[in-house]
Structure formats: C-alpha cells, structure tokens
Design a protein that fits this description.
- Helices cover 48% and strands 9% of the residues.
- It has 17 helices and 7 strands.
- It has helices at residues 19-26, 45-51, 69-78, 90-100, 102-113, 132-139, 149-158, 163-177, 188-191, 203-220, 228-241, 267-273, 289-298, 307-313, 317-324, 343-366, 372-390; strands at residues 30-35, 115-121, 143-148, 183-186, 245-249, 280-284, 302-304.
- Strands 1-2-3-4-5-6-7 form a 7-stranded parallel β-sheet.
- The longest helix is centred in the last third of the chain and has 24 residues, at 343-366.
- It is globular.
- The two termini are 17 Å apart.
- The relative contact order is 0.16.
- InterPro entries: Amidohydro-rel, Metal_Hydrolase.
- It holds the Pfam family Amidohydro_2.
- It comes from Streptosporangium album.
Amino acid sequence: MSTESFNPPDRAGSPGRGESLARAVETIALVDHHVHGALAGDAPRREFEELITESNRPVPSWMTQFDSQIGFAVLRHCAPVLGLDPHTEPETYLARRHELGTDEVNRRLLAASGIGHFLVETGYRGDEILDPARMAAVTGRPADEVVRLESVAERVAAEGVGAAGFAAAFETALWERSRTARGLKTIVAYRHGLDFEPGPPTRAEVTAAADRWLRRSAESGTARVDDPVLLRHLIWKGIERGLPLQFHVGYGDPDVDLHRSDPLLLRGLIELAEPRGVPLLLLHCYPFHRNAGFLAQVYPNVYFDVGLGVNYTGARSVAVVAESLELAPFAKILFSSDAWGPAELHHLGALLWRRAMTRVLSGFVADGEWSEAQAVRVATMIGAQNARRVYGLGEEA
C-alpha cells in the first residue's frame, strides 16, 4: 500500500475528521480482478515511455510521455517508493530504477500497492511479464489466472485443427485451459467491436467461418481471430463454461475503434445471457463508465470497473471514480488496475483508486449524506469483497 498517508480536506472543520476513513481505505487488501504481470526484465527509457501510454506508436523525439498525467503520477507517487524525492526528474527516476534492478523495483512497488489478491490475465505478450505463479512469489499474495478466449482459439488453430473440427477442439481446449482459472476474458472490442449479433451462431456458421479464418491464417502466417461469427462462438462457449466473463470496454490502444466499444452495444447479449446467471464484467469503460453504471444498475448479471481510466487520468482520476459511483449499486462495482508491464502501473492503480475513494467518500461524509461506517463498508465492498464474491475467492487469508 502507499508509503504516504492521505488526509482528506476537513470540510466540517473538526480536527482529524476523515482520518479514520482514510486509514480504513488505506488498509483494504485490494483484489485486483483484472491485471497483467509486472515486467520480467529491465526497460530502457524509450521502452519505458512506450509502456506508460496506450499508444502503439513510437514516442516522437520532440516530446516525452513523462509530460502526461500518468508520467507526473509516476514521478510523484512512485519515486518515494524507490527512495527518491517526489517530483524528481525522469532521468533521475529511470537511473534509480536501473540501479535497483527490475526484481527490486517490482518487489517494492507491488508490496506498496497493498493488493491482496491478483487475478492475472495471461493472453498478451506473456513471455515478457511475470506469470501468476511468479507474481505470487514476488508479492507473497495469491495470484490466479484469467484466460483469454481468443488466445485459446488461436492456440487451437496453431495446432493444426481443420474447420470441421474447430468447434469441438476449441470447447475441449477451453475447459482444459480454464480448469484452474477464476475467470475468462474476451477482447472482441479490439478484434471487431461490440456491435456484433448477440445470439450464438449455428454449428454450420461456425464451421464456415472457421474455414475462412484458417485459410486466411495459412496465407498470412498469423492466426489472429477477428471473424465476428467466431468471436460470437467463443463468447457463448465462454458463457457456457460458467466462469465470470470479462469484456474489455472503452479506452485502449489504437486497435480499438472507440465508438464501437460503448458497452450499451452489448445490451442484446446481456439480455440473452441473463438467464444463465454468468457474471459479465465490463472492464475499464472510460469514457463510457456512466453507460456501464446504467447497465450494472438495470441488469443483475452486469458488473463494471474503471481500472485503466484511473491510471491514465492521474490527478483527474478522482472525477472518474466519483462518476462511477453515480448509478450502479455498490455491490456491482469492482477494483482493477489493468496494469501490464511496469510495476509502477500496478502501484498507481491501487494508490490513485484509494486516494480517489477517500476524497469522494470523505466529501459524502462531510456533507452529511453518508455515515463514515457506510463509506468504509462501500470502499471495502468495491475494493475487495465484491470480487471475492463474484470470483468465488472466499474470505481473505
């Protein structure tokens, strides 16, 4: 957890008012219900800057990613964890990072996050980051896996399946691959958009789509699944599997056509899936987090978080967290960081969320709208208890 305590403003004028709420939020053993591993190796400046942006383009020579909300947050909040003064220069920060080495940087920043349980999605560039077992070894905290549906399908294709056998092979592989997993995830927003036909395709449709995809993959030498029929098939097989199913929603790298990543486009699927009782978790959602809050309010099978948006809005993340609390029942909101790579992102995901929750809830208490006990209970629900219930994690060890 943070090495610095946060004391919210005392709007009621009583000395120390809000300090107990701040302490309570600070000590929640967060469940990061959607995260990726920390970097396994060192990152020189150019690579580090490319890892603290969602852009997949090189950083132009005339600018630095440190001149951004996330960059300023790294220099403000991560520098003290590495033994530096807040607001240090990027050159000093990166030199200290290199001096300590990746293992020590990971150890310090992950420990300082105060995250008590990691649900690690392993489907993206897994050879560059720590897997769940290594995340658990570094932190001393449990780390379970979330399996990406598209990665399972692409592995099946790489193993040489034919079109007629694809559906059965994928189903078998999914059950085996997710045998010990806590959840599943789809990146349909990246591969097609959320404006797909909501119902499951027929077996004949799947076979025809698999034939098109496998032929195209053989010609191109890559097995990137982006056929909307196949993506629907993967999603419905994921729903049949019965594990909580995560959807990337909203903001992300340029692969996302943002206007087709609004969660309201999932309404048809949500309603068709509702009788099955499988939790559908909308990840990140910025700038559509208010839309996600509406869906979480009206559909019992929908949950959401604002994970990625918190890190990248930095000093403005208080507003994002405040907006996430407007419509949805508090039992339907979860915490995540969506950190991938630099452990700074894991640390900041937790620190900025704690700071935002403390400021927002302290305001409610100071205004007499909420009691402090209610504020602590809601922060604990969102920070840990909701995820423990949804993913069947049990009580904190």
